[in-house]
Amino acid sequence: MGTVQPDQAQDVREQTIFPDPDDVLARSFGLSGDLRPIPSNPHAYTFSPEDLSYRLDFTDDAEQQARFQGQADLISGLMEGEETIQGPLPIRDIYDEFVVKLAADEDEPSSWARLLRLPDGVALAGDKAPSALEARAFGQFAARLIRALDGESRKDEGRTTPVLTSIHDLRQAGPSVVKLLRAVGDSSVRDPVAKTMVAALRQIQPLGPALRVKIVHHQPVRADVLGERVDGAWHPVSFISADALGEGWIAASLAALCADLLVSGDADILDFLPAVSGFHDELPLLEEELKALWPLTLIRIGLLRAMAEHQAVVAASDETLGARQAARELFSRATAVHAAFVEAAILDAVDWPREGAPKFGLLLPEIEADAIRVVDLSVTSPLFAEGNWQDPDIDWRLLARIAWDSRMGATRFGEYRFSRAQLAGGEEADNYALHVDLCLPAGAVAVAPMGGIVHLVDNRLVLVGKEASLYLEGLDSVLVDGTALFAGDRLGVVAGGEGSVGGLRIRICRAADLLPPLFASARFARLWSRLVLSPSLLLGRDLDAPPTGRQPLARGWQDCVFDGNGRSFVDLSGAAGLLGHGNADMAEAAYRQWMTLAGVQGTQAEADFRDALLRLLPDDYNVVLTVTDEESAMELAEALAGQLAQDGETLVIADERRHGFGRLGATFWRFVRDGEAPDLVVTGSPVPGEPLAAVIAKAVHEDIAVPAPAVPPGAVACRIGCCVLNALTDDASIERADTTARYLGEQLHRIGGWMPELLAVEGEGFTYDLLLPDETLSSFDLARQLAAHGILMPRPQTPDRLPFSAPLCLTHQSVDRLTQALASVLERLRPEAGTLDQPAPSLTDLEDEPV
Question: Residues 695, 636: contact at Cβ < 8 Å?
């Protein structure tokens, strides 16, 4: 589907009878081989003697003969140039000519032949979308090829040489599409293609004079480019088709590549952008060329569909019908997106300077803008607490609360709202606000901030101006559709009863017929900011959120943490503790202790913590020694064991630093589950981020002399510890944790069994080690890749082991996110591993029936 075939763009002269190709090959070039016809071209053959590949072409067209000669002259010089570009090498005949004139009778037309040696290389697989690095490499190659071709063509300046043309030139796409669609009788098929082509050509028309014309390769696509693998990465190095060389727009060559990168069914509509940035880095494009790129890409896609529709009619087969379906799907995906959106994406991809904002008048001239209170709905907002951001109406509730006194309030433009952050998924949320909501006194007058035409669409008043379109919701207006207004003319009033407060929603877009979404993801925020203008421009008040760059972690809730843009991560680093982030009881306990007494040891809080800990232990333990860190606790336990041991007796120490406090699921202590009765028990801290650990001894050791710790635990840490230990006794919470622990173990061991040579799993409950026996993947790489999938792990200590600890509030959704992330990382290693006989497990594959 990605290659325009010669016989589909010009008439084939069937009446000419060419000499026997084997005879021509032997007499003119001194070669022989098993010639194989090329199905798409009845007068072209390939053969491969001694690991070399050749192509033999015949023609009786004098114009094609001239193209053969021009291509040969150009490529032969190109192969000797400084650029590392390879192509189909023209082979001279026994008379030192690139194009052989074949002997003919006086009554027969002249005919010619040429021979090309095809370059070596590996084609990039065309069954899936190229990676961003591969797409960028394609763009760089296409630009370098044009640069090299331009250098060779300049050598011929001053000489009389024919213009090198190509049947693939997109400047001829219109007539080609018309010709191809003549065979298609269904107008519902023809009309969308024709409409798209006309619209794209109209967009290009005013840009045409600025589009540079050079000798280009019109099809730098996967079917015509070969490469080599270096360090496991594919790099393009050569092109195959000489017929794709000819004069044309620089942007058209890149457009052909962009269309090809979207052919794969799994391609996102913006997957071509790395090719654009790679091309632009090598051969900077003009603004007009950047703006013409998407219309040219649509023309290319329309041409591909016209070819496929034509072939499905004139030569119906399973192959042509399948190609037609693929072409229709590509066309549908490409035309479903607004052209202004893609143009903005292209400009953003090359970091093109942004246009200045137009000048507007005031929309609400009677409103005192400085009296409008602004509500903070960001991730760090103090207005969010205890999960209230999950209320679907929380934004309006908080806006109404902030506007209570003055009856005027506003949300912020360009703010990543926490209320729209996704707790369950690792993908970016659509939470970047492209609008502003206002609370205003009902009846407040709104006027046109610019001249334009009024349209009424779906309860929105739209004012379409020369430089922008204004979308308003919440106005009462007497205007009718099509009304022309000057700046300052009355639009309407804020809807609502007398004395009440109304709501007004504002969006502004540079594109006349594009309604921006209310929210965008972080990925598209920069892109949309090229199209969407801030309502601050017409309100006389700065309602823009502070600009954001790379955002650190800003908030935690249960088993997840969020960055400043609202992207969620499952926290398996251990920082979530036992009860998870944002626990209100822990926060209240800490606050009350801080307000009463903090930073002092030997307090009632410490005594209460020891009592709470003893209540969770078997009755024969009654001595608790508190210290500030787990390492000190173990050192203390070992010192006590040496002090208490008598007559060579060995005392048993149970290390519960990692598995205690219910981290095994239903069993609170590992030594209890294993039926052991240790002399000493060492615990870690039940409080995340607080220095608190303990050594517990049996009653028989209650008279032991214990040295005072250098830094005993403080009152706040102990008070929070009491809160955590009390929460761990809840039967319903214990049952939920046990169910989740078993689910986590089942899914992890299933992943470990999928590719055991790369990943093994050790552990139980909520604490595990991911073992990496093969050097293909290190723990450091795995941690980084999991973070990219929204899973936070501790910093590894060794390259072959990645330990993690989950909070007891871990959800099945978070387990699924971890499972999918691990499967995705391992799947990418499949080509290198080369030992898998089964596909990577999907989420459906990994789900069990409810326990």
Answer: yes
In the structure, what pLDDT confidence band is assigned to residue 850 with cuts at 50, 70 and 90? very low
Would you say the pTM of this structure is higher than 0.70? yes
* Owner of token pair 């058209």: 252
Are 115 and 178 found together in one domain?
A: no
* Residue 499 contacts residue 443 (beta carbons within 8 Å): no
- Four-point Cα dihedral 515, 348, 337, 532, nearest 10: 0
21-38 tens-digit pLDDT? 999 999 999 998 899 998
SS3 488: coil
- The candidate with the shortest Cα–Cα distance to 56, out of 109, 118, 120, 122, is 118
Complete DSSP assignment for 242-275? STTEEEEEHHHHHHHHHHHHT-STT--TTTTHHH
Return the pLDDT at 4: 42
Are 644 and 760 part of one and the same domain?
no
**CA angle at 301 for the pair 297 and 302, rounded to the nearest 5°:** 115
For the chain, what is the domain count? 5
Range of the domain at 195: 134-353
Find the helix or strand (DSSP H, E) in which 697 lies.
strand 693-698
pLDDT of residue 155: 65
Kindly list the distances between the CA atom of residue 253 and the CA atoms of 41, 187, 221, 277, 350, in Å, as whole numbers in the listed order: 23, 30, 9, 14, 17
Please state, in angstroms and rounded to a whole number, the distance separating the CA atoms of residues 221 and 846: 38
Indicate the range of 5-9, 232-236, 482-486, 806-810 predicted with least confidence.
5-9
Tens digit of each residue's pLDDT (9 = 90 or more) over 382-440: 999 888 998 999 999 999 999 888 889 999 999 999 999 876 555 678 999 999 999 99
**Dihedral over alpha carbons 566, 570, 571, 577 (to 10 degrees):** 110
Q: Residue 647 burial by CB count (10 A; 0-12/13-18/19+): exposed, middle or buried?
A: exposed
Question: How does pLDDT run across 574-632, given as a tens digit for each residue?
Answer: 999 999 999 999 999 999 999 988 877 778 998 999 999 999 999 888 888 888 888 88
Asked if residue 104 and residue 166 are part of one domain, the reply reads no
What does the pLDDT read at residue 548?
A: 76
Q: How confident is the model at residue 744 (pLDDT cuts 50, 70, 90)?
A: very high
Which runs of E-coded beta strand occur in 119-157?
Answer: 122-123
94 inside domain:
yes
Residue 389, in any domain of the structure = yes
Domain identity same for 719 and 738: no
Q: What is the DSSP string of 326-344?
A: HHHHHHHHHHTS-HHHHHH
Give the domain CATH number at 69: 3.30.200
Dihedrals phi, psi of 273, to nearest 5 degrees: -60, -40
The Cβ of residue 171 has, within 10 Å, a number of other Cβ atoms equal to 17
Helices 273-282 and 339-349: crossing angle, nearest 10°?
50
Q: Which residues does 707 contact at the CB level (< 8 Å), separation at least 6?
A: none
pLDDT, mean of residues 160-187? 85
In a shared domain, residues 176 and 287: yes
Same domain for 761 and 724, yes or no, is: no
